[in-house]
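Structure ticket #2291
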Amino acid sequence: MNDKPLIAHVLYRLDTGGMERIALSVINHTGERYRHAVICLAGYGTLRSEIVDADVPCLSLDKRPGKDPGCYLRLWRALRTLKPDLVQTYNIGALDAAPVIRLSGVRRIVHAEHGRDVTDPNGDNPRYLRLRHWMAPFIDRFITVSRDLQHWLAKRAGIRPDKVTCIPNGIDVAAFTVPGVPPRPRVLLRDFAPPGSVLIANVARLDKVKDQAGLLAAFKLLQERAGQQTSDFRLIIVGGGPEHEALQRRVEQLGLTRTVRLLGNRSDVAGLLAECDMFVLSSIAEGMPLTLLEAMASGLPVVATDVGGVASLVENGTTGTLVPPGDPQALADALGVYVTDEALRHRHGDAGHARVTARFSLNAMLSAYTALYDELLGRQASASQPRVVTGLAGRGEH
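Resolution: structure written out below.
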């Protein structure tokens, strides 16, 4: 009989995204200490194939849009069959499952908040705030990925501070470290960005909350200021999502088809970042975006909107520049500084790499999760670090 505790991860959907990749990191790298299972309320996409251990069950409850009482009955039955020792739910989409989880006999529940809902970027929706407050008695511990979310849960949702633990996201820094740069050789993007051009990257889901439309407006301003020197810089936007067609039309309307390329979902994000010179994040709301950590690990300076937990990652004036959200003018100003100052790009890129290595490693994140799980399960803390296998961090849309 296997004496390792079973942890069930309940997500609305296992699809490409930063939150889902953190869940996979925990599952893939803590198998020596825990068994894992994944329960998806509304199905899963290609990310399912990135669960390394073939023995990890991944169930879909096929929840219908809107209210679906049958889904909760199927969840209860699945949990009664699996008999997990601890269940971790993720974000608002799975939060209301907590009472059902308790009724199934599970003794320990943790709930992870990776960012506010895309329809409620500022966390002001009173219904969502009430739901978090009402679910709190069923949940042993809330996990947030940033201090911003931690304070918001306590102040706005009324969650007791001692029930909230902040575990910052972490990445496998070695998977993104680019040796021997500068200069950055281009293979994947050589036909788009000629030698000597400055290549800017944005990696994010194509959704209104990520505000790539504002990024395109800022890039247009940047191009207009440069006049005839438009060959000097390019922009790639990596990721898929509901705004893809609208953004492609906007690229064409702005006359940016030669200097902007939408690449869609990619499995080679590390390789793409290795060929870029700087990174931009234009979101109007965030938790703690993995793409920023990956860009910094790749040695790229960052221009990012000052939202959510972004300021805890990007040291303004040291590893990058923070600008207000929804302000294309400010975004263009900040981008323009880096485009024209190669030495500054290298200096801030090196500082960003050092910061991620020191504070946001995958080992640090995994150690925090195992310590929390062990505490709630009444287990003796592990003396060894979780084993990180380079190359399992996953790539793609965030």
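Closing remark: The chain is about 35% helix and 15% strand.
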